[in-house]
Amino acid sequence: MSREPARTDKPVRPPISRGRQIFGLALSIVALAAAYVSYPRHADLTGFDAAEMARLESSMWRDYYEKRYAALFGDLYSVSRNQYGFSPLDSVELAVTAARAAKIFQPSTSRAEAEEALPMLTSYFGILAQAARMPVEVEDVARTELAWWQARREDVPTEQYGRIIARVATMLYGVDDEDVRRFGEQRAQAMHYRDARGADITEADWARITEQLEVAYRLLKNALVKASPAKP
Known about the structure:
single chain, mainly alpha
């Protein structure tokens, strides 16, 4: 009596539905996006372009005084991402903390109220310090940054708070020379010019401020280049 041969056919799997395919693709895209925004980059505080930094800082000052905080966030993000090379995730955090510090400081009317911006500045410089080429005392540099904000508001002479600005640069970059001091003075002069124009400031005035800031950042860049170790 013959036997039927054993069946070797494998069970047929039901086809994957289009909905599941789309869901899987969406998960893959989300995973890739998360990896992209959070993957560590080799950020470098010395990698900025002087002209672009000047344009962005002039724009940030304008955003601040016109209380356009969304635009301020965008310019801060561009500095962190495109000028310093931070990851998108770190750039967002830097922009958020810096914009919040500015928003807290702006309506303050005393040193005690201004101090409320310090935690945000400390968080900001804590992330920024990761791209410095030397150890940074984060709390000290945050307090020094706040000190020049407050000094300018209190009508301290321009050259005096210009020295505080230069001190912030020295704390971040480890460079203290004539170009760094002139960077601080030039940046303070640009701020003084903006303050003098007040509500009557014009497009031509903003263009002049940008020019002044470009001079400042070229001085800083020159100081950093001189301080860089020579390549073999």
